[in-house]
Design a protein that fits this description.
The chain is mostly beta strands and about 240 residues long. Helices cover about 5% and strands about 40% of the residues. It has helices spanning about 210-215, 225-230, 230-235, and strands spanning about 10-15, 35, 40-45, 50-55, 60-65, 75-85, 90-100, 105-110, 115-120, 125-130, 140-150, 150-155, 160-165, 180, 195-205. Strands 1, 3, 4, 6, 11, 12, 13 and 15 form an eight-stranded antiparallel beta sheet that branches. The longest helix has 8 residues, at about 210-215. The chain is globular, with a radius of gyration of 16 Å. The two termini are about 20 Å apart.
Length: about 240
């Protein structure tokens, strides 16, 4: 494995370890904490604990204000672990800045298709990389990374590139503010996600294929503290005591 500590925190905007049992989920890297709607639970995660979303209880996590840090730029990356608990139909937001009328970027699924979508300044419409749900499945932890380099969207599953989608060159939409949300689109009265989410990272740059492989780490994943070199100082905000 490469020495990912040298680069992991470069242009990292926010990172959610999702260790909390309920309530606010702390941004371990920045200051974009997530508020809890209808008591998102806790389960055993890919690394430590994770957030457990129950669609039947209309649960979700979101920032208290609009999240504009990954807008108006042309290089972004999103990394997270997911584990579906049921095979749902219809629209389901996994992670994104998207409330229907105001859309920036999103990872979501509609029926059997998963999408990694960027909404663009230059066209005002979405450009998507998409892939079949069979690459995700239910009941098993899978690692997803979506990147955008100003012209192409790439989607990785479990460290491997599964699809590349072309797009009109330009920046991510900067004229559509919305909160950062996990598990539910704020304006949608349905469409709640049913499953687990863990270790969510957001970057203002494109992760390389080797970095994606390193973060996946042969299916084991990498703890935030180990990858970032942050140690106890980085975990103080969420009250975790590390044995060094």
């Amino acid at each position: 494995m490469a020495d990912i500590k040298n680069d992991f925190a470069t242009d990292l905007v926010a990172y959610y370890e999702l260790e909390e049992s309920s309530g606010v989920r702390v941004d371990s890297h920045g200051s974009f904490d997530l508020n809890d709607t209808n008591t998102v639970g806790q389960a055993t995660g890919k690394i430590g604990n994770c957030a457990d979303f129950e669609a039947s209880n209309s649960e979700g996590l979101q920032t208290g204000s609009d999240f504009t840090e990954l807008s108006g730029i042309n290089t972004i990356s999103v990394s997270l672990w997911v584990k579906l608990e049921s095979n749902q139909t219809g629209f389901r937001l996994i992670c994104g800045v998207n409330n229907g009328a105001s859309e920036t970027w999103a990872i979501f699924r509609i029926n059997n298709t998963w999408y990694w979508r960027i909404f663009k300044d230059v066209t005002g419409t979405g450009q998507a990389a998409e892939f079949n749900q069979s690459l995700i499945g239910t009941g098993t932890w899978r690692h997803f990374v979506g990147t955008y380099d100003g012209a192409r969207l790439r989607a990785y599953i479990d460290g491997s590139l599964v699809v590349t989608g072309s797009a009109t060159s330009g920046n991510v939409n900067s004229g559509a503010p919305a909160p950062l949300s996990l598990g539910h689109r704020p304006d949608n009265t349905d469409g709640y996600y049913d499953g687990l989410i863990d270790e969510v990272g957001l970057w203002e740059r494109v992760l390389t294929s080797s970095e994606v492989t390193d973060i996946y780490n042969s299916g084991v994943g990498i703890p935030y503290e180990a990858a970032s070199g942050g140690g106890a100082a980085q975990t103080a905000r969420r009250g975790v005591v590390m044995m060094m």
